[in-house]
Amino acid sequence: MAIQSMASSRAAGKGSEPDSVFAVVERIREARRLDPNVVILDGSIGAMRDESGALGILPVVDEEYRKMPADLLMDYASIAGSPAFLQAAIDYTFQGFQPEGTIAAAVATPGGTGAIRLMMANYLNPGEAVLLPDWMWAPYNTIAQECGVKTENYQLFDENLKFMTKSIKEKSKAILEKQDSMLIILNTPGHNPTGYSFSEADWADLIPFYKKLALDTGKKVLLGLDIAYIDYCGDPIESRRFLGMFTDLPENMQVLLAFSMSKSFFVYGMRSGAIISFHQDAGVMKDFSNIHSFSARGAWSNGNHGAQELLVKISADAELTKRADIERRALYAVLKDRADIFVAEAKEVGLNMMPYYGGFFIALPHSNPKAVCAKLMDKNIFLVAMGKGVRVAICAVPLKQVPGLASSIKEVMDEIG
Ligand code: PLP
After folding, report:
1. Shared domain check, 310 and 342
2. How far is the CA of 155 from the centre of ligand 1 (A)?
């Protein structure tokens, strides 16, 4: 008998299912290899593309990065990230909305992914469960598995596709009956894949609920906010306003933020971000820095020095900050134009879609998303099948390809039923 795997039983079977997004990217490569002239609609991956199909970037980032001396790019970064980087990441994240009376801290991570990993690794014991949304960015499950953490899902929308907090509350309460700590991942604004953003009213409902839950149970309540798309949901300052609502939290409640330079500075491959948090107690924040620095050392050691220096440089220079803001707004305007057309046409043709307010993706509920995506591939339309529907990476679809897309999808969905 040939040995199939030399891995431990804990690792058995890992990775045998291909990543759903990268599997589609592979199919696109194959289609292009078979016919270099084929016209493809690529709505697969969450990377912004410009109108020519090239990767959307901030030119100021490109210019400033190339000016950096070799030692800044290539030397080790410090494990937690330099104090200047951490302050820049905190300032960029809050932009004036750090809750009053709190001390903020950050630890550098490889992208938002690293921050989510630190949340699951350091706020739950192995075997405990993290609360994840039913519609979600699939790697949350992968990270949980890697951390030895179980998953439970809360339902984001009711049967009429209307956002609700009912399931979030029920699941949060239930989990604290079984565990001494709860960690819930909330991906807002511009949720991947639906584009839903919690409203101020949603937060005005949830924040008091969690405060009370922490006070009533005396257990640890952790809200993990994945804010990857915060810059692409209308006015970026307004999108941050809700952060200022987390005032007067009980001492056993903490908010954790995943900051991603991939999305905010379009440097996906440079792998940079931070886990950021705030608390009224300096000791809690010192512990926050210690635990995450320790875990960083044991996982990836340190972050991308060049990317960290880039943020420091841009943040310290008002002119560069202004250029980055203008260039980011220009890409957002393109994204919004595409989404506006899709949303209007979806309405026109009666295509059912999840409530979209911003971000890189639009989601279309369906009972057989795999069949829908397979059929669309025959028409050279490449989208991603998720558990409860089809995801359109509208960030990647040039404006000229958007008209008619909703109706093509509707036709296929109707055919499949
Ligand atoms: N969270 C969500 C919802 C995402 O969609 C992504 C990337 O697609 C990330 C986090 C992490 O991105 P990165 O690790 O590149 O910052």
Report:
1. no
2. 21
Sheet containing strand 361-365, edge to edge, reads: 361-365, 389-393, 384-385
111 lines ligand 1 (CB under 6 A): yes
Atom of ligand 1 nearest to the CA of 263: 16
Q: Is 273 in the pocket of ligand 1 (CB under 6 A)?
A: yes
> Of 283, 316, 349, at which residue does a domain stop?
316
Tell whether 346 is covered by a domain. yes
Tens of pLDDT along 58-77?
A: 999 999 999 999 999 999 99
pLDDT of residue 17: 82
The verdict on 225 and 354 lying in the same domain is no
Question: Same structural domain for residues 226 and 339?
Answer: no
Taking the model in full, what pTM does it have?
0.96
pLDDT tens digits along 376-416? 999 999 999 999 999 999 999 999 999 999 999 999 999 99
Torsion of CA 188, 192, 196, 197, to 10 degrees: 20
Helix (H, G, I), strand (E, B) or coil at 268: helix
At 240 the pLDDT is: 98
Question: Could you tell me if the CB of 112 is within 6 A of ligand 1?
Answer: yes
**263, 282, 316: which is the final residue of a domain?**
316
Q: Name the CA dihedral angle for 345, 350, 356, 362, rounded to a multiple of 10 degrees.
A: -80
Same domain, 43 and 164: no
Q: Label residue 4 by pLDDT band (50, 70, 90).
A: confident
Cα 139 to middle of ligand 1, angstroms: 9
Please give the pLDDT value at position 31. 92
Whether 65 maps to a domain, the answer reads: no
Q: What is the largest CA-CA distance in the chain?
A: 66
